[in-house]
Write a structure and sequence with these properties.
The structure holds two protein chains of two kinds. Chain A is 76% helix and 0% strand. Chain A contains 13 helices and no strands. Chain A is globular. Chain B is mostly helical. In chain B, 74% of the residues lie in helices and 1% in strands. Chain B contains twelve helices and two strands, in the order αββααααααααααα. In chain B, strands 1-2 form a two-stranded antiparallel ribbon. In chain B, α1 crosses α12. Chain B starts with a helix and ends with a helix. Classes of the chains: A mainly alpha, B mainly alpha. Chains A and B meet through α1, α4, α5, α6 and α7 of A and α1, α4, α5, α6 and α7 of B.
């Protein structure tokens, strides 16, 4: 099938060409970006990267901040979501369905519209400018999806396993830790990665909760770099920043693509 | 009872984050609360709502948000069905192809919004560069009110199509193969099997991704703020951005809350209209096929 191959090539070109363009830009000198394409005067440079890395605070600081928030929110969400989804899978059918419907509606909600209230909460509880505090709204926002995904995998387990462990005299924590969790490991992994991606990429709340330059997360840092006029030209440094910011995610997607895809599609199939 | 104990913290967190804002906004929208009131909260009955009804900028943004959501989600859906059908077939290195096509979705919106801003840059961006070289002339994509919003649609389509395609792919995989074989035995061709088996069985997935994408597109914020800043002449400004500007730039929290509540009401209304439209077209579809 030739046609199929051509289609796949078009698909990949369309998905990847903006990256390739960013990489090209990031290695070009400002002057050569002002030349038309295929100019013989084109010069390559790593100056753009040096500029981004040597800035104050250095670019890696933002990656580190995003990483910290991502890990914290993932852990926080799972700590709450695992026991909760276990009991959700045990709830009577009518209650479980109503709860799931509520969770589904919440997960569809355009959460940008929540930022003002969340900011008010942050101000009154003094939660601003803290990466630890930022992970609280993140885990609350990812909670509905986490509950839906995990409770489905709990319900998919045969009831006998849980009952047998109960007869053996294990209490609820031992059952969760020793028997059930190992069985739903794949689904916990997918959930964790999706939460991590969400927290890593989240913008409006990070923008309003964090104002200290050395605490801002990657998306906010990039938007700040972009803050100057639309028409300002030397894009080389911008491009270098976007490339550096994209690398960790490209690695995550390539390594965990199976978990990401199964997490996303499970949500759709069972939701 | 231990079950109740286990589920309460998680549900409380969800209720606080999703429920409390609605209550708070409803209350704030009936009060003046801005720098002009010295950040005191003063009841003003319906003044915010009267202002909203007469606010041209709000209505312009509402229309922009609706046309942005409608156009991008429609394009995304059609492309996603096509991509899902391709990815469903046996292709070489399927895992790698899926992972690479998922990349746009996984990256922070602000990063690629910045990338697209450079692609559409006038006069140095690659697109203008190509158009100039082949002699089409200059478009001024981000500066011309006629095109600027379309560039944001392209960026949005680029970013979210793979995500929908994956959801639909899951749907395709849930359709038993026997159905197609039985249909073939009865003499149906592949176009017919698409219309009679694939599309009807894919319907729940299509509806779910439609709902999800429309809700997300209604709240579009990062993309617009970084790519165009709402310009030119406010033509790309979304409701989310307007609400944000009201709170963070004009420091008018009462009105910002009103705008957000109104956006939410508009979204519910839009989904209702969509639902009616979909039920009617489904009827017609069933009559024709």
């Amino acid at each position: 099938m030739k046609k199929k191959k051509i289609f796949v090539i078009i698909l990949l070109t369309w998905s990847l060409i903006p990256f390739i363009w960013q990489i090209y830009t990031s290695f070009s000198t400002p002057d050569s970006l002002l030349e038309p394409f295929f100019s013989l005067k084109h010069k390559w440079t790593i100056q753009n990267y040096l500029q981004v890395i040597q800035a104050d605070p250095p670019f890696f600081r933002y990656l580190l901040n995003s990483f910290i928030v991502g890990v914290l929110s993932t852990i926080l969400t799972l700590v709450f979501a695992i026991p909760a989804s276990y009991s959700l899978s045990k709830a009577p059918k009518s209650i479980a369905t109503t709860t799931k419907l509520f969770l589904l509606t919440s997960s569809l909600f355009p959460y940008v519209l929540l930022f003002l209230s969340l900011l008010e909460i942050a101000r009154s509880l003094n939660l601003g400018n803290s990466l630890v505090a930022l992970s609280i709204p993140y885990s609350a926002l990812s909670m509905p999806l986490a509950l839906l995904l995990l409770s489905t995998s709990f319900s998919d387990l045969p009831i006998d396993i849980d009952e047998a462990a109960k007869i053996e005299g294990l209490d609820i924590w031992q059952r969760l830790r020793l028997v059930l969790l190992p069985l739903i490991k794949p689904s916990i992994a997918s959930t964790a990665i999706i939460i991590f991606l969400f927290s890593w990429n989240e913008y409006p709340i990070a923008l309003t909760w964090i104002s200290k330059p050395n605490l801002i997360t990657l998306p906010v840092a990039v938007a700040r770099i972009a803050g100057s006029s639309i028409y300002s030209v030397p894009y080389g440094a911008y491009a270098a920043a976007t490339v550096l910011g994209a690398i960790p995610l490209i690695i995550i997607v390539l390594v965990f693509q199976k978990q990401i895809i199964s997490g996303l599609t499970q949500g759709a199939v069972k939701g | 009872m231990i079950y109740l104990l286990l589920i309460t913290p998680a549900l409380t967190l969800v209720l606080i984050v999703f429920g409390f804002p609605i209550v708070r906004y409803s209350w704030l929208s009936l009060h003046s609360y801005s720098v002009l009131t010295g950040l005191d909260v003063i009841p003003n009955t319906a003044a915010n709502w009267v202002r909203l009804l007469n606010d041209d900028r709000f209505w312009q943004d509402a229309i922009q948000t609706i046309r942005f959501s409608t156009l991008s989600v429609s394009i995304e859906l059609v492309l996603a069905i096509a991509i899902a059908l391709i990815l469903h077939q046996k292709i070489k290195r399927r895992g790698l192809v899926r992972a690479l096509s998922l990349l746009p979705w996984a990256l922070p919106t602000t990063i690629m919004a910045l990338g697209w801003r450079w692609i559409f840059n006038t006069p140095y961006g690659p697109l203008e560069n190509i158009l100039n070289t082949i002699g089409v002339g200059t478009f001024n994509f981000l500066g011309d009110p006629r095109y600027a919003w379309l560039t944001t649609v392209i960026a949005d389509v680029w970013k979210t199509t793979p995500f929908i395609a994956l959801l639909l792919l899951a749907g395709l995989q849930s359709i038993p193969k026997d159905l197609y074989e039985a249909f073939k035995l009865e003499g149906g061709n592949s176009n017919q099997s698409f219309l009679r088996i694939t599309l009807p069985l894919l319907e729940p997935y299509i509806i779910l991704s439609l709902l999800f994408r429309i809700a997300q597109a209604f709240g579009v914020f990062d993309l617009i703020q970084v790519m165009t800043g709402g310009g030119p002449a406010g033509t790309t400004e979304s409701l989310g951005l307007y609400a944000y500007l009201n709170a963070m730039r004009f420091l008018d929290f009462g009105y910002s809350a009103t705008v957000m509540l109104a956006s939410f009401i508009l979204l519910v209304f839009y989904c209702l209209m969509l639902w009616i439209l979909l039920s009617i077209s489904k009827r017609i579809y069933e009559l024709i096929i």
